[in-house]
Known about the structure:
By secondary structure, this protein is α+β, with helices and mostly antiparallel strands. Helix content is 40%, strand content 24%.
Amino acid sequence: xxxxxxxxxxxxxxxxxxxxxxxxxxxxxxxxxxxxxxxxxxxxxxxxxxxxxxxxxxxxxxxxxxxxxxxxxxxxxxxxxxxxxxxxxxxxxxxxxxxxxxxxxxxxxxxxxxxxxxxxxxxxxxxxxxxxxxxxxxxxxxxxxxxxxxxxxxxxxxxxxxxxxxxxxxxxxxxxxxxxxxxxxxxxxxxxxxxxxxxxxxxxxxxxxxxxxxxxxxxxxxxxxxxxxxxxxxxxxxxxxxxxxxxxxxxxxxxxxxxxxxxxxxxxxxxxxxxxxxxxxxxxxxxxxxxxxxxxxxxxxxxxxx
Length: 306
């Protein structure tokens, strides 16, 4: 948090310094714009005095020269103004690109240090190497970042990272990212692979006896020791059975609202709320309101819980 605060302070200082530069540039331009007409008027008045003091024969010649000079001076002033405006535009573009590149570099450094800190925290908490930790990241709000080699850049995108995966995260816009991390339970001769996908592109699965729509983000094969279910309920729809099983769940309500039952307690929930359900806790859900509700559900699978 301290590094992030320092990074934010640095970005603010850089932007403030850039704004000061732009203000100084504009101030110099205004000073020049105000002074050039004064110099020109002084020069013209001196010429006018010379014309009045000169003989008649010379007055005509000096008047013609003065008119010619005023026309050339007017053209010169227009050219100078155009050059000044173009220089200001070029300088502003350069300053913007310079500050943007510097901020991006600082963000990468901060993210790298935050990832290292996260790795150390996991090692201390679970006493495992990062090589044994895998994760699934699900994007739940607007997100933009670099597209290579793989990218999660849509609201419903997700990525599964197998153990021993090197990865980075870059963002140039605010986003909400849900990350599930756990120690991978290896099975002999079973290898998991990286997955990048879109929630709405996953097929709808059959739910015998139920009315909700179900999608699974990961394959159901034995290779994977957990899965993420995306469940959609139209207003008024509910689970037809009260579920009781050994699986533990982590739930995040993405859209809508409803009521969730855990054992003998009832909890009104809305988008953004989270629930953790221990094994063998009776659970039930009903969608309320006028819009559909969607939640994601973490579920440990394919491994003996004992």
